[in-house]
Amino acid sequence: MIFRQCDLVETPWKNGGGITRNIAKEQDKTGTLWRLSMADVDGDGAFSIFPGLTRILTVIQGDGMVLHGPDGDLQAGYAQPVRFDGGAPVTATLTQGPIRDFNLMFDTARCEGDAQTLRDAGTYKVGQAGQTCVLHVIAGTASVEGKALDVGDTAIRTDAPLRFDLAQDAVALTITLRPKD
């Protein structure tokens, strides 16, 4: 399934401090298993708290920010995924102006998530059967099954590995989510 950035709906942050664009999520009667979203961060401030969820945040536009939490500071630079406890009180300081970030949140009691950045043109296969596999285009273009993806677009595959082509000078974020037994 492909999610186009232009089709995403803006919604207020849980803490009321900004706007997010939800891309996709999986939940059941016990709560959120995982969620993907993008957020614009225009100033320093506190993150919303999501008890029981782990977050992996990746700056996809702008210079970056420093996350201040109980375990110390994390430098969130451009296209560098950082992992932290979504239930912890975290504040952010922008390093050089506004940014946009891509967020993965997941319940570590029920699944495990990983994120990595790709910068080399080529053909890729991410994940395996039984996993949720995600491609998000940070810069340039990519294609999935002959469909072009532009900056801000996201492809998700839940039934098999995700195969895609990354164009020259493109930057992409890949995510795999694996259920725990």
UniProtKB/TrEMBL annotation:
Alphabetized InterPro entries for the sequence: RmlC-like_jellyroll, RmlC_Cupin_sf, Uncharacterised_HutD/Ves
SUPFAM superfamilies in alphabetical order: RmlC-like cupins
Superkingdom of the organism of origin: Bacteria
Coiled coil stretches, renumbered: none
Name the UniProt record assigns to this protein: HutD protein
A Pfam family matched in the record: HutD
